Amino acid sequence: MLCYIGSYTTGPEQGVMRIEVDPTSGAMHFVAEDGDLGSPSFLAFGPQRRCLFAVGSNKAYPGGGALYSLPVADDGSLHLLSSEASHGQSACHLAISADGKHGYVANYSSGTVSAFAIEGDGSLSPAVQVLQHEGTGPHKRQEKAHAHGAYLSPDQRFVLVADLGIDQVVIYARGVDGTLTHHGECQLAPGAGPRHLSFFGNDVYVINELDNTITHCQWDPAAATLSVVASVPTLPDSFSGGSTTAEVAVSPDGRYVYGSNRGHDSLVTCARADDGSLSVLGHVSTGGEHPRHFCLIPGTELLLCANQDSNNILSYHIDANTGLPVATGHELNIRKPVCILPVA
What we know:
Elements: E1 2-7, E2 16-21, E3 28-34, E4 43-45, E5 51-57, E6 65-71, E7 82-85, E8 91-96, E9 102-107, E10 112-117, E11 129-132, E12 147-152, E13 158-163, E14 168-174, E15 180-187, E16 194-200, E17 203-208, E18 213-220, E19 225-233, E20 244-250, E21 256-262, E22 266-272, E23 278-285, E24 291-296, E25 302-307, E26 312-318, E27 325-333, E28 337-342
Antiparallel strand pairs: 1-2, 1-28, 2-3, 4-5, 5-6, 6-7, 8-9, 9-10, 10-11, 12-13, 13-14, 14-15, 16-17, 17-18, 18-19, 20-21, 21-22, 22-23, 24-25, 25-26, 26-27
């Protein structure tokens, strides 16, 4: 099984990497690296996986943020088709509409959200809109807005943006031209620092970077509102060191929710009840440092975890009885992995 790896680049002729994963054993090996791109970190596919999109950096652009479009060849290789300025600093996350016509980028340092039109061949227009978030929070890292994740609602009518700096998930209505209109917001706990989120039906799980929690919210698709229900900690009570969360994901069957802790360097597993509520089951080591991203591989029992600072990816089997990840013993050394995108 092929997976694309986003990373922080350290020199020329670096870009998006490809690895092969054995879907049974979890063994991994490096295949190739495509492009001469500035830190293509977070990745997303367009329709039918014909084109891969990545956020990154380009010093020639205002603010330095970039959005890349890379068509996927039959052999899985990539080539750069187009690149546009994200009109923000530290482009860190993106979402592509299901019809492939629009893309949305969260720019962390500038606290902005950019909207793009996408042509049929995957080529990008210049940004059609740039929205500035405003506000602060009580944490020292919340001196201003920090847009950190962009997500489309299941019906594709709204874009939800997790903003770490203002403790909100901001909700935008999508126009037919892809532009966004402010619709509302969901207020998280002061100092929570919402980073990423994951939908499962009308349940939404927001992982909060600064207070190390996962918050269960309810999405009302008719009113397009998001309401906080309850939060659980991602760290064990016995841990007193520094740590921040990163990624969150729901198992395909909806029985479990997973999150990653950077500092404690662990994956937390939560049981998900029928009403969407969470209870913490346990923690497993990520076998490295700073697990910025992980993903559940569709159609398998595998979870892959990317450790940014130790330059490695580990594979895990999900125990069918407990839901806990169990290390396969397979590890791949790879440069600064920060996003895993499976072709599945």
